[in-house]
From TrEMBL:
SUPFAM superfamilies: P-loop containing nucleoside triphosphate hydrolases, Pentapeptide repeat-like, Quinoprotein alcohol dehydrogenase-like, TPR-like, WD40 repeat-like. It holds the Pfam family WD40. It comes from the Bacteria. It comes from Mycoavidus cysteinexigens. WD repeats lie at residues 864-905, 906-947, 948-989, 990-1031, 1032-1073, 1074-1115, 1116-1157, 1158-1199, 1200-1241, 1242-1283, 1284-1325, 1326-1367, 1368-1403. This is WD40 repeat-containing protein.
Length: 1460
């Protein structure tokens, strides 16, 4: 039918007549080929308008009639050639936009009719030949197309050879490609090797693979090549759309919302079942009610930002030029919405991808736990197992295609598969990666799994923030709208307002969703307040789910088969909800034992893949009852994969099974399971009452699961223990059993970990021989515990208290303390520097030497000598081959870092050299000096370069920008100056500091500068404009050193206040304060990995700090600053404490459990007191006010204002109707409690009033003052009765004896004085304290008195004789407040001290006097305490850890009883 072109050109064609004739599919294809040929001839003859009409007509025909075409190779190639030829015509005319629109239409057409699979439906034998590229030996080894306008991204199709043919025109110097087909037309190419060529103007990077697909945008002015190009383009286009379809199909499956039935029941009743009561799956629910989350950085958890915007910025920012792959780690607690955010993001990215033109990265959402039988290449396995790509194809995609990988559930894969950077070859992917994980599953060193060592800028971290109040309201409105709830949004908000700490409890979307579902089913426990806990939420949610499932099955019972109806009736009779609970729990246990959140099961065995029998009992269709239970289970299904609707449901069910097993412990059958944990009173009795041969079952769940590492299950168990104190005994039984039964060490380690996290403290307990390898004892309290012979291998002791503990002969291999021993030097440390590879650290000393340490062992490996005076600055060259140092001898000296040989001495400065730095290239050195100049030097020859002048005072610090183009210098003239590194020309001057600039540094990106100053500030600046940014305030001394972390996210600063502070580099918010140095910190530096900080100090030490730590902090909160006041309630059941941290905290007096934290004061809380009725608390503060609080709820009451300065002391009258307050304004004010009105103002003191107290009768009041006097006042008249003189310094505390006949006062003169309350006469002066006395208190009987002092002791005195009965020394700060109470159980002393702790002591009278036993203390902070810990004969303790413990006061090998 083909008509010769010449004759066709000579006669009218159908387009000219307005239409193409309607034909059969075969005729359409043949006619299309004719018109393509004619159009090509029109183009060659210059008749482009006629050619365009033909192309448009044929294009229209195919778009309207393509349904008629068979999906074979021929039709696909013809259609592809039309679009290619027309697109080339448009490009030649410069009509690029129209060409791009045409390409979109082509893609839509192929998507619509699935023509992308043309020619791939059947496998055919492949004739010989393999993919290869013929290299023209005379030209470039890879054929290069340099035709005008080329924009190629080329993949050769299977069994095609590309042969480079040089154009005949020598002037053109262009190349084209001649495809040589080696098989017959229409051959199916599945499984055939291919060759990938990535081309952007040139062709390079060949990668072999199978069925690879890559974009082709190919243009050549050589029309002779068009038939060949068309043929090639058709094959490549088919391949590209083929793999895109694979991705889209799999992603649609991954991201779909529709819930698949968990079992097939009756006569296909699923639709009716879900219509009866729609129960959306977790995925659908989360996306439908999506609330844009907020996040923080890891270092600044106070500054919130929009996560959507931040992630978009991360994905769209230019790739780091030195690193193809960049990773964003999204951290978030369970239920915060990580998966919901990830799915929402993936959907948005796919919408954007489909709507956009041009090349974009392909977004892939990958649920890591759903990968079956995971290996060490999870991404590749996903592409292989889920998308069907071969290993060669995966390699080809890795080399040729850009991706956005959204990897969900990083914490839900086995730990051995979490080293993604190495295992996944992340650096070989052209990808941005978002990874989500619960923070408790990030183990020490996790960053090394997500980035190359020494390249920490590859990793970015964000922390999902809990819902704000506004987010909660928004979610409630969406929930009501989406679920068509019976309650209104206001109903929900009103009910939630009755729940204490609702924001903390319901700050996660999943918990909030559960609460909204179960709230209508909860009864109010009492008007105005509801009892709701996290555990109750889960319990009620699960019960509600099963109850509604039962109701739904009841509604459709008639549609079930006869066998199913019979099974359903049986389940109902026996208890459907109980059966459901058992089914779901057992399924959760089976999955957790398999260490997976996803169960994959096919009822039909797949060829070559054995069925997983672990889940057969739950997922097979053989048992009608199991089918019914599965149909209604807390599960979701995706094809053959089953998982719980939320991972936390699985964790809850496992934890519940564990605690129910514990609650069935033989001796607890009749125990009350709702009694809160009160370990302080029962721990010792329970422990000593247990026998080492106590009966435990080694097959128990607690001995099966690793609760230490599975923090989610651990957290549920901790909460259960806190609510059910009866669990203390069985947990202790497991620990005791480990002393004689080796098979239970896993349960013992789990048990003690749970108890530690629940706040149980093991002071003075006999724990000899316990076997708890791998336990997490971080933040545990083991003061004076007996741990001889215990197996403590691999135990985490981070921030534990082990003072006076006996670890003799304990096994301690692999123990972790989260800290490093400091390096003790011979002289003051002026400078520290890590080598670029992090393997060595150089330390510049005051004696002129430089110590070089190996960081693997922190042993000194050699010393560099040469300087004759202190070394102020030391630095490695970027190549690590050279070391430079500057010092007081006015020189810069160079050494060979490998041979230790001295190199050049750079002379020219006329005074001390304060700072030395290499340029990023290593070719240049800059030095700053006391002579006010910066000098530049050639690093190889030592030749002097430019001298930069401009500063008017000493240059303290000099640094190159990361680009090497700019230098910044800081000076005592209060400025930072910027200089051109090449010419030495002066640039901007940064002004703002009010003191000398002591340190200056660029951020790793070069966009920001930080400077530290003698004005105690760190200032941030824009490096380009010089504009001032945030000011970091907190140091109380000059900032001597400032440095960015390698990631650029954090700043560390060292100061004359002896601390190192960490800051968020973006917001400037303070993070942590590292304390330990006893002298000014003059040098701070991060290790190249960013995981460690070294700080050098004038105290002659280098301290090493762990920046990262995987340890979980305590579950209970404590004060974050010195405790200034403590007091018992009248009943003795509650304690209140006030602190420098501006808060009042309430505690349970028996257990030490934290209750409310009262916030409202804007300055230090100096004094707290209970009203006599116990219903109210008063607090006095440095904000000049007295606040009143409800003692039960913690709600704020009235604020009493009137004092003109700090309120130091508050006290209620015995009747509770009046309140007295003493202030720095030298007055005592008496207030009516009910009205808040001031009744009297007592004046007479000549200085601050530090303490006030009523007599037991209430008729008299005593006040102590900084004027060294105690005054006694008549309460009714306000008249001063007596003035007691005798103290030689400020009186800080006054107290009446219980009888009211005597008065005691404590003073800064280090004494306690006793006075006759009636006459004012002095009775005794108690001496013994070696520093200020801050607090005095009588025992309830009045026969004894306790005093607390700044000498870090409490002394107990006999009142009658003034004899000191006992000195309590176990404090690490001054004792500022003491309270005493007596109960039928015993006598107890309460202390608040400068070390931030509230402690309760039990006082026991023994033959040799009174002994004080520590019952509990408020949660320990970030300190390891090992003073007088005995290490004799310990086994396996590393030398570094031994050195650390000895530095902290541990006793290595000498029995404590032998110490003098």
């Amino acid at each position: 039918m083909f008509t010769p072109v010449n004759s066709m050109l000579s006669r009218p064609h159908p387009v000219a007549q307005g239409q193409l004739p309607v034909q059969t599919p075969q005729q359409m294809l043949e006619q299309a080929e004719q018109y393509i040929a004619v159009a090509d001839e029109y183009t060659k003859s210059g008749q482009v308008d006629e050619a365009e009409k033909l192309y448009q007509a044929v294009q229209k025909l195919f778009e309207e009639e393509a349904e008629k075409l068979s999906l074979d190779s021929q039709s696909g190639k013809i259609i592809e050639s039309i679009y290619l030829s027309y697109g080339l015509l448009l490009n030649e005319q410069g009509r690029r936009t129209e060409a791009e629109t045409l390409e979109q239409k082509r893609q839509q057409l192929f998507e619509r009719y699935r023509l992308n699979n043309a020619g791939f439906s059947k496998k055919r034998p492949v004739e010989g030949g393999s993919s290869s590229l013929h290299s023209n030996k005379k030209n470039h080894p890879v054929a290069v197309e340099r035709l005008a306008g080329v924009d190629a991204f080329l993949l050769s199709y299977p069994n095609t050879k590309l042969e480079a043919l040089q154009e005949s025109s020598a002037e053109a110097q262009t190349f084209s490609f001649k495809p040589i087909l080696t098989d017959s037309a229409g051959t199916d190419y599945i499984g055939v090797e291919t060759l990938v060529q990535s081309c952007h103007g040139t062709i390079n990077a060949p990668v072999h693979g199978k069925n690879n697909t890559v974009n082709v945008h190919y243009y050549s002015p050589n029309r002779e090549l068009l038939p060949q190009i068309q043929e090639m383009h058709t094959a490549v286009g088919e391949l590209k759309t083929a793999y895109l379809d694979r991705f889209k199909e799999q992603q649609a499956l991954e991201l779909r919302s529709k819930k698949e039935p968990l079992a097939i029941l009756g006569r296909n009743i699923e639709a009716e079942y879900f219509t009866a009561w729609e129960e959306p799956g977790e995925i659908q629910d989360g996306l439908a009610m999506y609330v844009a989350p907020q996040a923080t950085t890891v270092t600044d958890k106070k500054t919130l930002f929009d996560l959507d915007e931040a992630v978009t910025a991360f994905l769209t920012q230019a790739q780091d030029s030195s690193q193809k792959t960049q990773v964003l780690l999204l951290r978030g607690e369970a239920g915060l919405g990580k998966s919901t955010f990830n799915r929402h993001l993936a959907r948005r990215l796919w919408r954007d991808y489909s709507a956009a033109s041009g090349e974009r990265p392909i977004p892939l959402y990958i649920s890591l736990p759903t990968i079956d039988r995971p290996n060490k290449n999870l991404i590749g396995q996903y592409l292989s197992d889920k998308c069907g790509f071969s290993p060669e194809q995966v390699d080809a995609l890795r080399a040729s295609q850009r991706f956005i990988f959204i990897l969900d559930g990083y914490d839900e894969i086995p730990a051995e598969q979490r080293n993604l950077y190495a295992d996944e070859k992340l650096d070989q992917w052209q990808a941005k990666i978002l990874l989500s994980c619960r923070p408790e599953y990030l183990t020490e060193g996790y960053k090394n799994h997500l980035q190359p060592r020494g390249r920490s800028r590859v990793l970015l971290e964000y922390q999902l923030a809990p819902f704000s109040e506004q987010s909660i309201k928004t979610y409630i409105h969406q929930y009501v709208q989406y679920t068509q709830a019976q309650w209104s949004a206001q109903d929900y908000q009103d009910r939630l307002a009755q729940i204490p700490n609702v924001k903390e409890l319901l700050g996660t979307p999943f918990l909030l969703k559960m609460a909204l579902r179960v709230l209508p089913t909860l009864d109010e426990t009492r008007p105005g307040q509801m009892a709701l806990t996290r555990l109750k939420l889960y319990e009620q949610f699960v019960q509600t789910w099963f109850g509604r499932s039962l109701a739904r099955l009841d509604a459709i019972q008639s549609k079930l088969t006869e066998a199913e109806q019979k099974a359903f009736r049986s389940l109902k009779d026996e208890g459907f909800i109980e059966h459901s609970q058992t089914f779901n729990t057992n399924f959760a246990l089976a999955m957790s034992e398999a260490q997976t959140p996803v169960a994959e099961y096919s009822p039909i065995a797949r060829r070559g893949i054995p069925q997983d029998k672990r889940y057969e009992a739950f997922l097979s269709n053989q048992d009608e009852g199991k089918k019914l239970l599965r149909f209604s289970a807390l599960l979701t299904r995706q094809q053959q994969q089953y998982r719980f609707i939320h991972k936390s449901i699985q964790d809850y069910l496992v934890a519940r099974a564990v605690w129910e097993e514990l609650e069935n412990f033989t001796e607890l059958a009749s125990s009350n399971r709702s009694t809160p944990l009160n370990w302080a009173e029962t721990l010792r009795v329970l422990w000593e009452g247990l026998s080492p041969s106590v009966q435990v079952d080694a097959a128990a769940l607690l001995n099966t699961f690793n609760v230490v590492e599975d923090v989610a299950i651990q957290r549920f168990l901790v909460e259960r223990v806190q609510h059910n104190g009866a669990l203390l005994k069985p947990l202790l039984a497991w620990i005791k059993a480990s002393t004689s039964q080796k098979s239970v060490h896993k349960a013992a380690a789990n048990a003690i970990t749970i108890l530690i996290k629940a706040g149980v403290q093991f002071n003075e307990l006999d724990l000899k021989g316990i076997q708890i390898p791998g336990a997490d004892l971080s933040f545990g309290v083991f003061d004076s515990a007996q741990l001889q012979g215990a197996d403590l291998s691999q135990v985490n002791f981070r921030n534990s208290w082990l003072r006076h503990a006996d670890l003799s002969a304990a096994k301690m291999a692999g123990v972790r303390f989260g800290e490093w021993a400091y390096l003790q030097e011979e002289d003051m440390v002026y400078s520290c520097a890590y080598s670029p590879d992090g393997k060595n650290c150089a330390v510049g000393l005051g004696n002129g030497t430089i110590s070089i340490y190996s960081t693997s062992s922190w042993e000194k490996i050699y010393t560099l000598e040469g300087h004759t005076r202190p070394v102020n600055s030391v630095v490695y060259s970027p190549s690590k081959k050279q070391i430079a140092a500057g010092g007081w001898d006015k020189t810069v000296r160079l050494w060979d870092a490998e041979s230790e040989a001295a190199g050049h001495t750079l002379e020219g400065h006329t005074s001390t050299v304060n700072s030395v730095v290499y340029s990023p290239s290593g070719k240049q050195i800059a030095s700053g000096s006391l002579d006010k100049t910066v000098r530049l030097w050639d690093a190889h020859s030592g030749a002097a370069g430019h001298t930069l002048k401009g500063h008017t005072s000493t240059v303290n610090s000099v640094v190159y920008s990361p680009s090497g183009k700019q230098i910044a210098s800081g000076s005592w003239d209060n400025t930072v100056r910027l200089w051109d590194a090449h010419s030495g020309a002066a640039g901007p001057t940064l002004e703002g500091h009010t003191g000398g600039v002591l340190s200056v540094v660029y951020s790793p990106s070069g966009k920001q500068i930080a400077s530290g100053s003698s004005d105690h500030m760190v200032r941030l600046w824009d490096a380009h404009s010089g504009a001032a940014g945030p000011t970091l305030e907190g140091h109380t001394g000059g900032v001597l050193s400032v440095v960015y972390s390698p990631s650029g996210l954090q700043i560390a600063s060292g100061s004359g206040d002896k601390t190192v502070r960490l800051w968020d580099a973006h917001s400037g918010a303070a993070a942590h304060t590292l304390e330990g140095h006893t002298g000014s910190v003059v040098s701070v530096v991060y290790s190249p990995s960013g995981s460690q900080i070294a700080s050098g100090s004038l105290d002659k030490t280098v301290r090493l700090w762990d920046v990262e730590s995987g340890a979980t902090g305590p579950t209970l909160e404590g004060h974050t600053a010195s405790v200034l006041s403590v007091v018992y309630s009248l009943s003795g059941k509650q304690i209140a404490s006030g602190s420098y941290d501006k808060t009042v905290r309430l505690w349970d007096a028996h257990s030490g459990a934290a209750a409310h934290t009262l916030r409202g004061h804007t300055d230090w809380v100096n004094s707290v007191v209970y009203s006599p009725s116990g219903t109210q608390i008063a607090s006095g503060s440095s904000d000049n006010t007295v606040h009143l609080w409800d003692a039960h709820s913690g709600a704020a009451g009235p604020t009493l204002e009137g004092h003109a300065s700090t309120v130091n002391s508050v006290v209620y009258s015995p009747s509770g109707s009046q309140l007295a307050s003493g202030s720095d304004d030298k007055t005592v004010r008496l207030w009516d409690v009910e009205s808040g009105v001031a009744v009297h103002t007592l004046k007479g003191h000549a200085a601050s009033v530090r303490s006030v107290v009523y007599s037991p009768s209430g008729s008299q009041l005593a006040s102590g003052s900084s004027d060294k006097r105690v005054r006694l006042w008549d309460v009714e008249s306000g008249v001063a009765v007596h003035t007691l003189e005798g103290h030689a310094a400020s009186v800080r505390s006054v107290v009446y004896s219980p009888s009211g006949s005597q008065l005691a006062s404590g003073s800064w003169d280090n004494t306690v004085r006793l006075w006759d309350a009636h006459s004012g006469a002095a009775v005794h002066t108690l001496k013994g304290h070696t520093s200020f006395v801050y607090s005095v208190v009588y025992s309830p009987s009045g026969s004894q008195l306790a005093s607390g002092s700044d000498d870090k002791t409490v002394r107990l005195w006999k009142v009658a004789s003034g004899e000191c009965l006992r000195e309590i020394q176990d404090f690490t700060g001054g004792v500022y407040s003491i309270a005493w109470k007596a109960t039928p159980e015993g006598s107890y002393l309460l202390t608040g001290s400068g070390d931030k702790f509230v402690r309760q002591w039990e006082l026991i009278g023994e033959e040799d006097g009174v002994h004080a036993h520590l019952r509990w203390m408020s949660p320990p902070d970030n300190k390891l305490m090992v003073k007088d810990t005995l290490l004799e004969g310990v086994v396996g303790l590393s030398e570094m850890n031994r050195a650390l413990l000895k530095q902290r006061g541990a006793n290595d090998g000498v029995a404590l009883s032998d110490l003098a």
